[in-house]
Design goal:
- The protein has a single domain, classed as Aldolase class I (TIM Barrel), CATH 3.20.20.
- By secondary structure, the protein is an alpha/beta fold.
- Bound molecules: flavin mononucleotide (FMN).
- The site of flavin mononucleotide has 27 residues, from strand 6 and helix 8.
Amino acid sequence: MTRAIGRQTDPAIRTDLCGIRLASPVILAAGTAGTLDETAGVTDLARIGAVVSKSITRLPRKGNPEPRITWTRAGMLNAIGLANPGVEAFAADIAPRAARMPCAVIGSIAGFSIEDYVGTAGVMEAAAEIPIVELNVSCPNVHGGVEFGADPGALAELVRAVRAELNTKRLLVKLSPITVGTPHSPADLARVACEAGADGMTLCNTIPSMGIDVRTRKPLLANVTGGLSGPAVHPVVVKIVHDVYRAFARDAGVPIVAGGGVTRWEDAAEFVLAGASAVQVGAGSFVDPRSANKITKGLLRWTRSQGAGNIGELVGRVELA
Ligand SMILES: Cc1cc2nc3c(=O)[nH]c(=O)nc-3n(C[C@H](O)[C@H](O)[C@H](O)COP(=O)(O)O)c2cc1C
């Protein structure tokens, strides 16, 4: 089968991400599109940029007990706990499906030690149809899930070790939005990750959070706490993208992939103006599985209405007084 990545969309919306050509800057976020291709029946994958796989760990994980997804007025709370089939099943069952995808595939890896990440990265390196790897160092729903992403020394060591494993792949590092209470800003961590060998960064994962049923007095999630995503996190991440772009990414020429509360094309356009080269849709796909396609169409109309020949011309072009 001939793969026609990038030919289904207007040139004005095609996007270069670390040298990889995407049909659109809109990407389905890790863990929100099944393991890889399960949304193909409801989302036109030929008209989006990429799908990020479920985060894969060295060993299979059942994840946290249910309930592990719930909705609040502010958005979605999840504590899936990195449920995934593990790296051996990934190599046998999921990676071969990447070859049949009509869009780019980004392989997400998670772990609890450098050896874990490196082992999974080695399997990703062998997957010819996966050009980009996203390193999840920011999962708030498992013990130890955010530690690598919060400590610059540990982050640099991890990125260097994973980079050494990935000779042919681009590497994105997915950071947490929460650095409050630590001396390190997201821009500091992004800089550390890129200096250690990352080609770009994904901003951001979910925000640690909690909900309580006041009638039963029990937490809404069996795990007690989870990660908040959806519209409430969007303005938080717009600021982080704006800060990281101006503090570091613009001058370093490093792309930002922004995710958090993108449910309409306007949200995606805001991220582009703040400095993102591509955007991810997560919780929005649960509300409307076609939202990524609708957002792509809206971005195309917006790009033309702004007089740009390609959406890349609008990256970081917020007009500050
Ligand atoms: C049900 C669910 C599962 C998720 N699983 C993962 C995961 O395996 N790896 C990861 O890096 N992020 C995971 N995320 C975070 C999303 O990829 C995304 O970064 C986050 O939801 C913010 O985007 P949104 O506001 O559009 O949902 C998950 C989010 C949800 C809602």
